[in-house]
């Protein structure tokens, strides 16, 4: 439904005289007698007449103004609800990302095969801060395909280094 004040081309604060003059001015432009055969002008004139019928009387205008105020309140309520939903979704996403990073930093396995499909090499560190001894080991075929026991491979070869994991 179009705003009746916009149909007449007036502000919602307009008084009765301005509403009446706006209706007459627009009615002359779209009256079917001045636009014979123009269906669009005829439809526009009907819309103007309906708008003036509501806004031309004080009681119906007050009801229409109350309807517009309720519609604005409902729009603001939905907007606030949507904003809260988006904020909650954002916080859950960020929280999930931090939870995954926290698990990853503690050495909990994210699963074998989470990196690219290129030949997988692992680097085992012997020190916590800096590289004292470095050796490269290839994933065993069972671990590369996701089979076998991750904890046993990790115990045999040490923690992952160089792929985002820390050796703590």
Q: Overview of this structure, please?
A:
With 168 residues, this protein is mostly helical. Among the domains are: 4-56, Helix Hairpins, CATH 1.10.287; 111-168, no CATH class. 58% of the residues lie in helices and 6% in strands. It has 6 helices and 2 strands. The protein has a two-stranded antiparallel ribbon. A hairpin with an 8-residue loop joins β1 and β2. α2 runs antiparallel to α3. The chain is elongated. The two termini are 65 Å apart. Residues 112-129, 131-135 and 162-168 have low confidence and may be disordered.
Order of helices and strands: HHHHEEHH
Strand numbers in spatial order across the main sheet: 1-2
Q: Tell me the fraction of residues in β-strands, as a range.
A: 5-15%
For the CA atoms, what is the radius of gyration?
Answer: 36 Å
Shape: elongated
Q: Give the uncertain stretches in residue-range form.
A: 112-129, 131-135, 162-168
Instruction: Provide the residue-averaged pLDDT.
Output: 75
- Count of separate DSSP helical elements: 6
Major sheet description: 2 strands, antiparallel
């Amino acid at each position: 439904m179009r705003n009746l004040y916009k149909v007449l081309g007036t502000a919602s604060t307009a008084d009765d005289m301005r509403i009446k003059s706006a209706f007459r001015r627009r009615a002359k432009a779209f009256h079917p007698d001045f636009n014979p055969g123009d269906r669009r002008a005829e439809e526009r004139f009907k819309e103007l007449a309906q708008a003036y019928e509501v806004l031309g009387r004080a009681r119906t205008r007050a009801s229409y103004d109350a309807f517009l105020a309720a519609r604005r309140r409902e729009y603001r309520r939905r907007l606030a609800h949507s904003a809260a939903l988006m904020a909650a979704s954002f916080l859950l996403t960020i929280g999930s990302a931090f939870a995954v990073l926290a698990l990853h930093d503690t050495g909990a396995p994210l699963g074998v095969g989470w990196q690219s499909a290129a030949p997988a090499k692992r680097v085992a560190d012997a020190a916590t801060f800096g590289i004292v001894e470095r050796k490269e080991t290839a994933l065993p075929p069972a671990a590369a395909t996701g089979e076998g026991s991750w904890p046993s491979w990790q115990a045999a070869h040490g923690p992952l280094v160089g792929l985002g994991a820390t050796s703590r």
